[in-house]
Design brief:
This protein is 62% helix and 11% strand. By secondary structure, the chain is α/β, with parallel strands linked by helices. It folds into 3 domains: 201 residues, no CATH class; 70 residues; 144 residues, 2-Layer Sandwich (Heat Shock Protein 90). The strands form 2 sheets. Strands 1-7-8-6-5-3 form a 6-stranded mixed β-sheet. α6 runs antiparallel to α7 and α7 packs parallel to α11. It starts with a strand and ends in a 7-residue tail after the last strand. The N terminus is likely disordered.
């Protein structure tokens, strides 16, 4: 399976949708808070001028005002939605701190709202960001309790005890409980959110892979038939030219023309063979291959190629334990050579290519070919494995297509990442060789 990383456009649209939901839920929460305050006021027959009532209405108004500001600003910060989400999360934590202060401080029943902030933050930020949010909520709650313990703040609302009612032991207990709760929820929700993101990315990649396979299968059938139709008359043409070459007089012009015809015939023959390899790649003679040794030999040969010369430095980083994979050595050579050649052609002057072998957690063997060449834009990344697509003046557009088809035969996953002006990275994930039973 060959795809690049998750499409950033899809991720941006999903983030926009989630932010819209968050703003809507925040607006409803503010209305519910205002309604609850009104119910509490009527039930206890409090005046509108009561301090706790005024503060609760004030908090509700602040949240409504912020919701309106978020809705207005959101279309203007499309390129910074992740930072926009961080800002909303931090302001929500401050608003919750204010709600807890107004509703009793250490005895408030709304302390669970911190956990809600931690949970929903995992939807917008990664696990590390969720842990930072947990730290922020813990710090805000701890600061509020310390100020209450010192008598600096006198919480309002039912249960608001004021100065001296919070003992040192209670302070430590409540802070410890909040810290443990926030970080436990952050670890769990962050883990689940990361798993969900990875699952979605794999699903998108699989859908794109299936679509590509369907397209390539149709093209392959047509290509195979066309290649066979071309190959037979081409062989006859080449044989006829060889006979004519031996029978005609050794005229310089005739010989020159014959050489041109034979050279171009060989070139067409090579193109047809590549066409057939792309159309119907065979599994070849599969055997357990020492990956480190095979890559070292390929790199040594490639360094002597005329396309490399002295302008490109190739770094090879292998595992201490030489992994083995099941593949045809000739096809492995073809795959790695094509990727190295593609990287070398992307480097205009001086540059370097790195080949790295790693063992992944899922037991797959990663072979990474990275360069610091010209890189590729989004449009090129979407089409690099399509047959006959090339950005090179003398390219046929079959090199990476053949790489794709060969690797597909061995159930190899390919990930491509690139950035214009920075370089490209091809990651091949091979299945390790199975030990004999």
């Amino acid at each position: 399976m060959a795809e690049r990383a998750t499409n950033p456009q899809i991720g941006q649209e999903a983030l926009d949708h989630k932010l819209n939901w968050l703003m809507s839920l925040r607006f409803l929460f503010a209305l519910m808070l205002a309604g609850s305050t009104l119910t509490y006021q009527l039930a206890h027959r409090l005046n509108f001028t009561a301090t706790s009532v005024v503060l609760l209405y004030g908090v509700s108004g602040v949240i409504l005002f912020l919701s309106a500001i978020y809705a207005i600003v959101s279309p203007m910060v499309q390129r910074h939605q992740r930072l926009f989400a961080y800002a909303q999360i931090c302001l929500d934590a401050l608003c919750i701190d204010l709600i807890i202060y107004v509703t009793g401080g250490s005895t408030s029943v709304f302390t669970f709202l911190y956990l809600l902030v931690v949970v929903y933050s995992s939807v917008f930020v990664f696990k590390r960001g969720t842990l930072c949010v947990a730290g922020l909520c813990s710090a805000l709650f701890t600061a509020l309790l310390i100020l209450e313990f010192n008598g600096t703040l006198n919480p309002f609302g039912p249960g608001g005890g004021g100065s001296g009612t919070l003992t040192g032991l209670q302070l430590v207990q409540k802070c410890a409980i909040m810290v443990v709760a926030c970080f436990s929820v952050a670890l769990l929700s962050g883990y689940l959110s990361d798993q969900e993101r990875r699952s979605k990315a794999e699903l998108v990649a699989m859908e794109a892979h299936l679509l590509r396979v369907q397209n390539l299968a149709q093209i392959g059938e047509m290509a195979a038939g066309l290649a066979h139709e071309i190959k037979n008359p081409l062989a006859s043409l080449s044989g006829a030219i060889q006979i004519l070459k031996s029978e005609l007089s050794a005229d310089r012009d005739n010989m020159r023309l014959m050489q041109i015809v034979l050279r171009e015939t060989d070139r067409l023959g090579s193109l047809v063979n590549n066409f057939l390899t792309f159309a119907r790649p065979s599994a070849g003679r599969t055997q357990a291959v020492d990956l480190t040794q095979a890559l070292a030999e390929i790199i040594t040969l490639f360094e002597k190629d005329s396309s490399v010369g002295q302008r490109i430095k190739i770094d090879f980083n292998a595992l201490a334990e030489a992994p083995r994979i099941d593949i045809d050595p000739l096809q492995l050579h073809q795959v790695i050579w094509n990727l190295l050649l593609n990287s070398a052609e992307a480097i205009v002057q001086q540059g370097h290519i790195s080949v790295t072998v790693q063992k992944m957690k899922n037991e797959r063997i990663l072979v990474e070919v990275a360069d610091n060449g010209c890189g590729m834009d989004e449009t090129t990344l979407d089409t690099i494995f399509n047959p006959f697509y090339t950005t090179k003046p003398n390219g046929t557009g079959l090199g990476l297509s053949i790489v794709y088809r060969i690797l597909e035969t061995y159930d190899c996953h390919v990930d491509v990442q690139s950035k214009p002006g920075v370089g490209s990275r091809f990651c091949l994930y091979f299945k390790p060789s199975q030990p004999p039973q």
